[in-house]
Structures are given as C-alpha cells and as structure tokens.
Amino acid sequence: MTLRLRTVLGPHGQTAGLKSGEITVQGATLDFETFKRMPDAYRRMARTAEFDVCELAPTTYLIARAKGVPITALPIPMTRRFRHAGLVRREGSPISEPKDLEGKRVGIRAYTVTAGTWTRGVLAEEYGLDTSKVHWITEEEENIPDADLPPNVTRVDEKLSALFARGELDAGFAGLAGIGDPPEGESYIDMFDKPAPLEAAWFKKTGIYPIHGLITVRNDVLAANPELPQALMDAFVAAKTLYLADVFAGVRDEAEDRRYRKLADLVGDPLPYGFTANKPSLEALVRYSEDQGFIKNMPSLEALFLPIEPASKNQEN
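Now predict its structure.
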C-alpha cells in the first residue's frame, strides 16, 4: 500500500516537478495542500505538527523543536538569499553604519522571522552591533505564540509602515519582513550602499549561504518509514535538477530564476541539498538564533537536521 503524505510546499520552481507529478517519491504519494500565505502553514505545522511533510521557516522550526513539537528537518533548503540588503532607513537619516542602530527603534514583522535573524547575525558578527541594545518593534504574533523573546522586543497594535511614515521608527526591514515597500515617489535607503560585494566577500570567508525554508517531517512518519528521508531527498534533487536545467538554458527567466542564475557565479550550485553542503549555514543559523535569545540548549546539529545526502553526486552537479 502506497504511503500518502499530506504535504505543503511554497510556490518554488524547484518543486514544480513534484507538484506536477513528473517527479515522484519512491514508495509515497505527496497529497499537496495549498496556502495563500505560507506563514499560515508554518504556524499550523509548528504548533500542532498537522502535516506529514511541510516547508517551514528555519527559525520557526528551531523554536518548535525547542518547545517539543515532534518534527525533524531534512537538509533540503527551499530558498536562498543573502541578507546584507533589506534593512532600510529613510533618506536623510543620521544612521550610517550598523552600530548606529543601538538605542534606536527598528521595525520587523515578528522578531523571530528568518530574514531578521540572518541580518542581525551578520550585523553582530561582522560589524559589532549589540542587538540587545536595539529596540525591536513588531506588529504580528510570532509563529509560535509562546516563543521566548528578549526584553528589548515590543509588539504594537499598528502597522509598522504607518510608524515608519510618521518617523516613529528609525529603521525597518523592507517588504514582507517589516515595513513594506516605500510609498510612490519615495525611496528607502539600504544600510549598505553596495551590499552585493559585501555578501560575496562574506560568503567566501565563511561559506555561509543563508537558508529561508526547510522541509520538515513528522517524527511518527519518520519512525514508521525509515527509508522516507532518502526517498524525499532523491525526489527533491530530481525536481531541482529539472528546474535548474531550464534556468541555465534560459527557458525559465522570471526574476527568481535570474537571481539564481546570477548567484551561481558566486556559490556554484544555487540550491545545494544535503547535510554536508549546508552544514556551515545550519551551524550559523542555530548560533544566531541562540545569540538572539529565542532558543537555548539545543540538541546536536545532526539531531536537528537529518544528516542525509543526495544519493549520487552526479545528481547535484
């Protein structure tokens, strides 16, 4: 009897082959469920382990594990993006470097969102920012309501965009991570004028390639089906291989496709799967999350992220 798995994945090119049925999982059928907003799926998985297989924000996953939710992540990242860009200030702001944020009010949708965790980690380790001296202002409930937050986090009952427009925030995360996009005729200024060279230098120094989205599986499903993690890895690799072939051939040419094509010049495989390839990034994610005060006393990296690899190196090349 074929194993049927309730599955939620975001709208990624590298999962299209799985959703269309062109790529299948050996011994299992993925029954896909669709969400208009992926954070809604994140919350349901992180709070009650509702789905068998579900994409989850990495920081939400770590908090869920810290709270005892019975799920485990596979080293199959869904989205990659460097985070030196995206923290913005208004034109004419006196903020000129990361240390200037100390003592200031900075808007972010929720404190534990993955984008913010990566940016705070970079600013702390590379530029000396003491994140405990920044007043983090949030507008949404955390994906896990009882997440442990540091005392310098305050939730408000108003849109961050309105606070920023009135000058009640000194800086904020742009787009969905915080204050949204600038009003027509206005512009926001990134913390770094030219983030791309800084990101490239940081990657070459550290090997860290920020992860936004991981595949998680219910522990009872894993226990009953020990062959499933490798079967999922092989299927995700096959779907990714189809996608990247189209990206590099120019068949796929949307903004996200072009972004990965450009990233390949720096990182090689823009969507690396497997424990070994992602270990530096996973280690950094756990370290940043602990440093920022919302997880502690976590198990080993291998217990958090199953140490599986693509079955064949040829699949990843």
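The chain has two domains: 3-80+209-316, 87-206.
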